[in-house]
Every structure is written in structure tokens, then in C-alpha cells.
Specification:
Blueprint (H helix, E strand, L loop, with lengths): L13 E3 L2 E3 L3 E4 L6 H11 L3 E5 L14 H4 L6 E5 L6 H14 L5 E4 L12 H13 L3 E6 L3 H10 L3 E4 L13 H10 L5 E3 L5 H9 L4 E4 L1 H4 L4 H21 L21
Length: 269
Amino acid sequence: MNAPLESPTIADPLVIGGIAYRSRLLVGTGKYRDFAQTREALVAARAQIVTVAIRRTNIGQDANAPSLLEHVPPTEFTYLPNSAGCYTADDAVRTLKLARELLDGHALTKLEVLGYSNTLYPNVRETLKAAERLVADGFQVMVYTSDDPIIAHELEQIGCVAIMPLASLIGSGMGILNPWNLQLIIAQAKVPVLVDAGVGTASDATIAMELGCSGVLMNTGIALAKDPIRMARAMRLAVEAGRDAFLAGRMPRKLYAASPSSPTTGLIS
């Protein structure tokens, strides 16, 4: 269930599962005032991939309730159903198989298996089990995980199409707490690495992209802002700026520099 594909001549695309996307900002659909505000935020963010918590969002499970599909149609956005709220591999696999049925065989999915309800930190053992089963069943798995480089590598070896380590705890807004581990994961990965969870404001998104992340996935940082629509726009610009800065290559860091930025010869006397 994908939106129409972009032109194959996209400059610097984000490629996931063999499909090229223009936007490197992935946005969640939960916690907004209503579905109308959800759509407005997604449009302001210019998001193409949108995450949907299958256990919490109606996309046809309840025919008598408002459906996200009416406001965020799959003809305009690529759905990324996720297993938010699952604490075992069995629950996660069952939830994502339901999503595939609801979305007419849609294979792209976000795997999320949590450890504790108070922190929402990933249970990596259950995540590994679920990833193996889902990949074997033909799913294209984008996986939420810890910032452990070993686990990230194992998930890639299983066949996940994107690795999504947390920057900090889900919903915390604490930003990137361990840039060193993120850089280790990015350096070894041959699939896209996207920061997932913990982004609180635009500068957090920029830092993630400057570190070399392929993209950023967020929900709470936009939905719980005082002005979600303005924050969605700010996050889009932050991701774009961070990507440009990464590609440009920053100047070396120095404790101090004795060379002035202006010429020292040919001075006007």
C-alpha cells in the first residue's frame, strides 16, 4: 500500500526496500488532536512514509469509527504499520500479519517489541526472534532497536531493510544521548540507519542527520508541540539542513585557529 512512486531522477533519494523516497522525515500518526490535524502535520512535514500503530489506530478494524484512511489516504502516503504496544515476538508478528491483511498485502512494516511499559525500551531478544520470522514470511522490516552496534548488525544480517536505533527513550524528547554508538552503527551498516525515538526539537533532528543518519522517524516531538504544524515544518527543514551539512562535510574542529578568515596580504593602508 504505497503512494505513487517518485520520479527515478530524485536527487539524493532515501532508498528503502528498493523504493526511492524524496523525504527523509518519517512521521507518526498518533497523539494528534484529531485525524484532520494529523493530516495537516504530515503535509507540513512533507512526509511520504507515515507510521501507523495497528493496535491503536483505526484503519478499518472498526467500520463504525472514523478511519485514518479517510484523512491520510494510501494514494498519497506510504503506510508503515508498526507493532507498537507489543511486548513479545508472538504479539508483534500477529499484529503485523493483521496489518498486512488490512492493507491488502502491504509488506513494508515497522517492527517494535518493547521491554517495559514505563520506558518503552526495546526488548532486543524478542525483536531478533520476531525479525527472523517476519523476514522469512516476506515482510520488509524496518526495525526499532537499541543503540547497540552488535544487535544492529545482527538485525541487518537477518535481512531487515532499515535499522532504527533510539536516540533516547520514546516520547522523552531528550535528543541524542549517545552519538558515538550511532556513528558505530552507521559506519558498519549497508542499509539505511534512521533515528527513531527521543527527538524533541529541530536541532535534535539536524544532529542526527549531521552524524550520517539516512533519516529520522518521529511522532511525539511534533504531535505534542504547542504548535504541531509549525513544528512539523521546522522538523522538515532541520532534516534537510542536517543532510546538506553532512554531504557538504564540516570543517575540522580545533581548539583555536591562528589563521584569520580574511587575507593578511594586500591590506589597504
